[in-house]
Amino acid sequence: MSTPNPELPAAPEPEGEVRLTFMEHLRELRKRLGRALIGVAVGMALVGGFVEKIFHALMQPVLDSLPENQRALHYTSYVEPLMVYLKVALYGGIFVAVPWVLWQLWLFIAPGLYKREKRVVLPFLASGTLLFYAGASFCYFLIMPAAFPAMAAIANDASLSPVLTMSEQLSLILGMLLGFGIVFELPVIIAFLSMVGVVSWRTLAKYRRIAIVVNVILAAIITPTGDPLNLALMAVPMIIFYEIGIVLARILGKKPATEATVTRAEG
After folding, report:
1. Which of 142, 155, 162, 199 has the most CB atoms within 10 Å of its CB?
2. Residue 240: which residues within 8 A CB-CB, separation 6 or more?
3. Which residues of 213-243 are buried (b: 16+ CB within 10 A; e: fewer)?
4. Residue 225 gets which letter from DSSP?
5. What is the DSSP letter of 165?
6. 39 and 104 in contact (C-beta within 8 Å)?
7. What is the pLDDT of residue 6?
8. At what angle do helices 166-183 and 121-138 cross, to 10 degrees?
9. At what angle do helices 80-109 and 51-64 cross, to 10 degrees?
10. CA atoms within 13 A on the CB side of 185
11. What is the mean pLDDT of residues 114-124?
């Protein structure tokens, strides 16, 4: 006669867990978003006095790709320079406030995590910040010097003369910088999603081939030219970061309740 299996202990609950209603979650989210926006506003104030210098630095890769006698940007209305400088201040504020915004994100999700997961707060913030800035720097110093001459070569015709406007070139530059910054965040994003149980490393590994195809498509969209070198410079880091994300998801990922309970019982 077989003895019934002893009941397994209940799965551990997150330490210091505070159960909130749906409306309380929304209020907490609004609070964190509000504080993140305050951080962006402070960042805007810090860069506000340097918008012209920042704008000219951002436009340098564009100007370097033009012939010597055509290195100038144009505006189509008297309001355009003002709007351009305001946009520089806004995006500059976002770049400055990245660590603060990530901190607010952490404070929002931390109550639902276990103690061991909360220990990664500093690596989470540090790596998230450094990867974002590394992505933007990678784009500015490696991608743009190759991308803009390649685009200029496409219109290499004596009958054509470029008339590049301030707003259009700024949108292109900022889009590329933010795109690369976010792409370099891929390992942190995957680790975060695995910690809260949205994805698992097994699922990520299972759909690796699809992810590679999606990465190449995204790289083609983010890079402004179809040049194979620029595409590779974007796609290869994305694929590498995806693989790093799988490793982090395996280490930091939230275990299913049954698996966590069985592991605890066996110990």
Report:
1. 199
2. none
3. eebbeebeebbbbebeebbebbbebbbebbb
4. S
5. B
6. yes
7. 52
8. 140
9. 100
10. 20
11. 73
Q: Which of 169, 160, 221 is nearest to 58 (CA)?
A: 169
- Left, alpha or beta for 15 (phi > 0: left; psi -120 to 50: alpha)? beta
Nearest C-alpha neighbor of 144 from the set 94, 95, 180, 186: 180
Q: Residue 180 has what pLDDT?
A: 86
Residue the block writes with tokens 């436009």:
59
Q: How far is CA 139 from the centre of its chain?
A: 13
Report the C-alpha gap between 176 and 172 in whole angstroms: 6
* Alpha carbons 109 and 9: distance in angstroms, whole number: 26
Cβ contacts of residue 194 below 8 Å, gap of 6+?
200, 201, 248, 249, 252, 253, 254
- Checking 227-233 for CB contacts under 8 A at 24+ apart, the result is 227/146, 227/147, 227/150, 229/146, 230/143, 230/146, 230/147, 230/150, 233/142, 233/143, 233/146
* CA–CA distances in Å: residue 118 to residues 110, 130, 252, 254: 7, 20, 11, 12
Question: Could you tell me the two tokens for 123?
Answer: 């690596």
What percent of the chain shows pLDDT beyond 70?
A: 82
For residues 233-256, average pLDDT: 83
Question: What's the chain's average pLDDT?
Answer: 82
The pLDDT of residue 224 is above 70: no
Is the Cα dihedral 10, 14, 16, 22 positive or negative? negative
